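My current task is to audit a protein record that another person submitted. I need someone to confirm that the token line plausibly describes how this chain folds. Take the sequence as given and treat only the tokens as open to question. This is what I was given:
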Amino acid sequence: MIFTIGLRELKSLFLSPLAWSILAVVQLILAYLFLGRIEIIQMYQAQLMAMDGAPGVTEIILPDLLGNAAIILLLVVPLLTMRLVAEERRNRTLSLLFSAPLSMTEIVLGKYLGILLFLLVLLVLIALMPLSLLAGARLDFGLLAASFLGLALLLAGFAAVGLFMSTLTQYTTVAAISTFGALLLFWILDWSGQGFAGGNWLAYLSLFNHYKPFLDGIFDSADAVYHVLLITTFLVLSIHRLDADRLGG
């Protein structure tokens, strides 16, 4: 049933102009940034060839591209997750889900799977940009794999936070703004923590600090565990929130 709900959510996304608009806008912006990095390589190609231990094509292009992708998707994911539960509540169809022979876990994981499948499509489209360089350059596949794994974990965390925020309200706009605010807070936590007691804890909770190592080609299990814990926490909170709604309804 989880897979069925996930496919239903994915289908409803692609039936809306919002999903297609997001795919188009994200690809357009990232393609512009990608081509800008290519132009930089062409401008400094002679100097790079004369340098000992010069950075490769992957090192020059990928960290900057995926770093910008994370910022763009931090703005975009709330638009995708805002309707997951809030729209069901507004349309009064949430009670139909509650009356179905489904557990709250199945409902939450199904809706979460639908968003993940859409984000997977988005990731594949982004990955085609650096992979296109294989036609004329050698790529660092280790850096490529680590970077995209980091982005995948980051987006999965974004989606989990967005799903939880969508369970708290019936207004999609409120869900989107709340998700963006929460994600931005998680992103910049360590900024405000500098110089304060407990700043190390704030730095640990920062999404950025657990994403950047992946862009450097470093896979640290502690960073992966952080993302998994973040995802699990917000999925569990979403399940408890819907369970409270069902019992209260």
